[in-house]
Design goal:
28% strand, two-stranded antiparallel sheet, alpha/beta
Length: 127
């Protein structure tokens, strides 16, 4: 089964649920599902800051398991984790991740859908 996580809830979600539950399972290969993407909202975007311990661990897992790490573009912009890149022909602004771990990207739902469309996600889990 292929899953994607959306981290929308503030509080202990990142430190406890991701950092102490999901991430150790991904690192050890015992999660039980293939995680193909993670999308971060609000203050959860800080987990992908360059130098953040959870972000560094996620970056390592992402590079080994081809896992998408995407921050909400507007959330990241407000927190200094994205900079304006360009406006497309449809008038939609695009941003680039800044001060984040590699391979973090930024986008909005259409970008997330496009990025995940080729991998065949079976379930999206919102935490």
């Amino acid at each position: 089964m292929k899953v994607a996580y959306v981290f929308a809830t503030a509080g202990q979600t990142i430190d406890y649920v991701l950092g102490e539950m999901i991430l150790p399972q991904l690192e050890s290969g015992t999660h039980g599902a293939e995680v193909v993407g993670m999308f971060f909202f609000h203050d959860n975007t800080y987990a992908l800051r360059d130098g953040d311990p959870i972000g560094e661990r996620l970056a390592d897992v992402a590079s080994k398991q081809e896992l998408l790490l995407m921050l909400c573009d507007q959330c990241a912009k407000k927190r200094g984790l994205a900079e304006y890149d360009h406006t497309d022909d449809a008038g939609r602004e695009h941003f680039e991740a800044t001060n984040t771990v590699e391979p973090a990207t930024v986008g909005c739902f259409p970008d997330l859908y496009a990025a995940l469309s080729d991998v065949g996600v079976d379930q999206v889990i919102t935490l």
